[in-house]
Amino acid sequence: MRTFIGADFSRDIKDSIAGVQHIVRENSERGRFKYVGNFHLTLKFLGEIEQAKAPDIGRTLKEIALKHRRIRLNIDKIGYFNGKGSIHALWLGFSGELDKLSSLYSDIDEGMYKLGIKKEIKAYTPHITIAQDLVLKIPFEKLEEKLNFQNFRTVEIREISLIKSEEAGGKRIYTPISTFQLK
User: Fold this and answer.
1) What are phi and psi of 157, to 5 degrees?
2) How far apart are CA 21 and CA 131, in angstroms?
3) Residue 150's pLDDT band (boundaries 50, 70, 90)?
4) Adjacent-strand bridge partners of 71
5) With helix as H, strand as E and coil as C, how does 51-120 read?
6) Nearest alpha carbon to residue 94 among 155, 42, 39
7) Cβ neighbours of residue 167 closer than 8 Å, sequence gap 6 or more
8) What is the pTM of this model?
């Protein structure tokens, strides 16, 4: 099964993200826009794992969660990863307790490595993907000027989850397998 470790958001945070996504959509020629219910913060992409490995991953995540306190973040920027002729991924980024988030990420990466899952090579860029394969009608800088992050509430990461990702009815569905509360 295809999996990742992530943190979910409350419905009101997802609705605020959807408001930004709406402005992006209005200023785009084309793109694939993420479903509102799927907005999340990925902490580690695991890829295809055997279902029998899920309990070991869960035990490791439980230990990690007990070592970390809740993390307060602010969604306050937009960025992108380049693609060929388009924006591969348009995302919202964070400020706030990034040192705590980085520590949690490192412990997860190390914990998964001990279970035989490769460590990440690239530096961790915490983000929420809102669109992919995007072509804008306006320059990116103009899009940035149209966005206002003042109305966003602070995001509190309270738990981490092992999440299954599957395709159903032409739509990507994320289902938590196990969830663990941070201290």
Assistant:
1) -80, 110
2) 8
3) confident
4) 157
5) HHHHHHHHHHHHHHHHHCCCEEEEEEEEEEEECCCCEEEEEEEEEECHHHHHHHHHHHHHHHHHCCCCCC
6) 155
7) 173
8) 0.93
Token pair, residue 156, equals 């509190």
Distance, in Å, from the CA atom of 94 to the CA atom of 127, rounded to the nearest integer, reads 7
- CA 112: distance to chain centroid? 18
Q: 162 and 3 in contact (C-beta within 8 Å)?
A: yes
Q: How confident is the model at residue 85 (pLDDT cuts 50, 70, 90)?
A: confident
Domain range 2-181, its CATH number among 3.30.930.10, 3.40.50.300, 3.40.190.10, 3.90.1140.10 = 3.90.1140.10
At residue 114, the 3 state secondary structure works out as helix
CB 171 within 8 A of CB 33: no
pLDDT classification of 97: cutoffs 50, 70, 90? very high
* pLDDT tens digits, one per residue of 109-148: 999 999 999 999 999 999 999 999 999 999 999 999 999 8
